[in-house]
Amino acid sequence: MFDKNKLPVLILLFLAGVVNYLDRSALSIGAPFISHDLSLSATQMGLIFSSFSIGYAIFNFIGGMAADKYGAKMTLFVAMIVWSLFSGAVALAVGFASLIVIRILFGMGEGPLSTTISKMVNNWFPLEQRASAIGLANSGTPLGGAISGPIVGFIAISYNWKISFILIMFIGLIWAFCWLKFVKEKPVKSAGNVTVVKGNQSSQKSYPLSFYLKEKTVLFTAFAFFAYNYILFFFLTWFPSYLVEARGLDVKSMSVVTIIPWVLGFIGLAAGGFVSDWVFKKFSQKGVLFSRKVVLVSCLFLSAVCIGIAGLVATTVSAVTLVALSVFFLYLTGAIYWAIIQDVVQQKSVGSVGGFMHFLANTAGIIGPALTGYIVDKSGSFTGAFLLAGGLAVFASLAVIRFVRPIIYKNERDIEMTI
């Protein structure tokens, strides 16, 4: 399906996602050990989980602008170096305050990943392949989450949790070397020419970033992405602790069980872009946004229903099954948010607008984990946190139906055009 000269880029982007979530998930897997060793409460752990997203959300936007200005290749290279070093620095933490600082800096390093993936896909792949390419590139993230459980869990049980953070630091540094050596910013044949993103773009004037930041399509796509991230961060940060504290699993069993949702998430994220591109080809007369919205609305709604019910069921098997299905449906939408931005935004602004969307979406990572910790401490149960995550995503899926529309442009002669 993809040209062989594009495969190295896609493979390394995929592996970047693996490293990204291997690093990011390590703290939640190691949380039972870390909270015990450093005497941290659930509220403090929630704040530590949330602190990551302070740096992460800000550098979603800054990373997007850097990708537009300095190139996606160099931006991602620097990002990988930074986040790998601060992933390893977790082993140096001595208490609550030091973990907060390390996780903020770690989040700053990871912030540019998704926007640089989007920018690289925009540079290398044609319109009809972009959702598929974004889905495949990003599908490395749940795979990284899946392998983090066995790796961090095994090392923590057999040796010491600190060793796992040092090991995954070196994995990231090796990736950075390969990326710098083997990948170019754009295909050689188009190095001197900007790839045409849309057929009518050459006749359009250049629109500033501020134009896009006021568009309902961008803002409500970001809101849907916020709901996506709220569920994702709830799962990413608190699910291991939920299995240990609420379901009574030991760390070894928890490390294995967490693989199940991540594997389904990997399948969903890899497949979601292909599904959207297939719908686009089958219903091309309805426009590209129709194909994106069909997948986004239906799958985000199903994810919401599953996560909400998961908080109400009595058995561990039922809860794990529903959470796994929720992650599967959630990840089916994972490529769509980025595809929408690529569909409606001029190429020169794809990184910045995508970064802005990602910034807004990842404020969920600041709010959600801390709020979950507070709910658990006050109620003594995870049920309210499950229901809140599901309700937010239901509302967001309905908002997409109403507000996500093609952006109306005017060319230099004030002739209205839509993408």
Automatic annotation (TrEMBL):
Signal peptide: none annotated. It holds the Pfam family MFS_1. It is a multi-pass membrane protein. The chain crosses the membrane at residues 46-64, 76-106, 159-180, 218-239, 259-280, 292-313, 319-341, 353-376, 382-404. Gene3D superfamilies: MFS general substrate transporter like domains. Residues 9-408 form the Major facilitator superfamily (MFS) profile domain. Keywords: Membrane, Transmembrane, Transmembrane helix, Transport. It is found in: Cell membrane. It comes from the Bacteria. One of its GO terms (cellular component) is plasma membrane. The keyword Cell membrane does not apply. SUPFAM superfamilies: MFS general substrate transporter. One of its GO terms (molecular function) is transmembrane transporter activity. This is ACS family hexuronate transporter-like MFS transporter. It comes from Neobacillus bataviensis.
